[in-house]
Specification:
Elements lengths: L1 H55 L1 H27 L35
């Protein structure tokens, strides 16, 4: 009966090792399962609330989607412009000057239109 006792002892040792391994592994896995379940529950609840809102207020939902689309488009356009860099160029400042003949006289200078041959 020595072989049978050794087999039973060995089986009990293996079961104990498997149990220890499960005890060590399950808390981390169990937390992942709980977090995953909570996330799935939150998504389902959010989907139900959103579908009820859309059914009751289709105009507001459409406006919200359009606004989100416009914000996305503006952000994408701004990112592309920033990627292209600033526009390089030059500018000159032109100071406004008063007309020489009407300065200080108080009269507004009147310009006559020239007539063309067509008009």
């Amino acid at each position: 009966m020595g072989k049978l006792d050794n087999a039973q002892d060995r089986a009990l040792e293996l079961i104990g090792e498997i149990g220890d391994g499960l005890r060590k592994a399950v808390p981390g896995k169990a937390m992942q399962w709980v977090e995953t379940g909570a996330a799935i529950g939150a998504v389902r609840t959010g989907a139900k609330v959103a579908s009820k809102f859309v059914r009751r207020n289709p105009v507001l939902a459409t406006a919200a989607i359009a606004g989100a689309g416009l914000l996305w488009y503006a952000a994408r356009r701004r990112a592309r412009q920033a990627e292209a860099g600033p526009i390089e160029g030059s500018a000159t400042r032109v100071d406004a000057s008063s007309p020489a003949d009407g300065a200080g006289s108080g009269k507004a200078s009147v310009r006559k239109r020239r007539r063309t041959a067509a008009g």
